[in-house]
Structures are given as C-alpha cells and as structure tokens.
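Thought: the user wants the 3D structure for the chain below. I'll pass the sequence to the structure tool as-is, report back what it returns, then summarize two notable features.
Action: structure_tool
Action Input:
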Amino acid sequence: MSALLLLGLRILAAAALYAFMIWALVLIWRSTRQEADFLSARKITPLWLQIQEPGREARLVQFTQGDILIGRDPDCECPLQDPAASARHARLHHHHNQ
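Observation:
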C-alpha cells in the first residue's frame, strides 16, 4: 500500500509542477501582450526636419516613424544627394517622446 501511496504523491507533485509552469507561462504571455499593446498604442509625435543640401533648395520633411535613417542609400527614409554623406549617414531614434 505504501508504494501505491508514494506513486500517487509523485504523480500529484508532477501535476502540481506542470500546473505551476503553465501558470507562470500564461502570466509571462499576458505581461508581454500588455506591454506590446501599450507600446503599439503610443502616439509618435511627428518629426519635422529641414534638409539643406549643397546647391539645392532647403526642403521640409515630416516623419512619423520611430527610427529615421538618413544617407545616400535609396532605401533610407531621407535620401540625400550629397557626395560627402555616407550611404547610411545617421539614424534618428524616437524614444520617450523625444
């Protein structure tokens, strides 16, 4: 009888351990989802930049992304025609509404 009781206690302990692990994962998942929802709901204040390139007229550009890449590369959000600028010259990062 004691072997059967010991087996039952071991099964109960294993079930309690798995229940705790599932509970912890659910809490981590909920916390991660709440943080993601909070970050996605943030409104990014539009950023206005005045771009002045040599031999060209100044232009005013508005950005609403969190990261802005400036450079000669055509994939940049703000492409420049200045030969003195590198392909990926600068990155502006929006953090804490600044």
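Final Answer: Structure generated. Strands lie at 47-51, 59-63, 67-71, 78-79, 90-93. Helices lie at 2-41.
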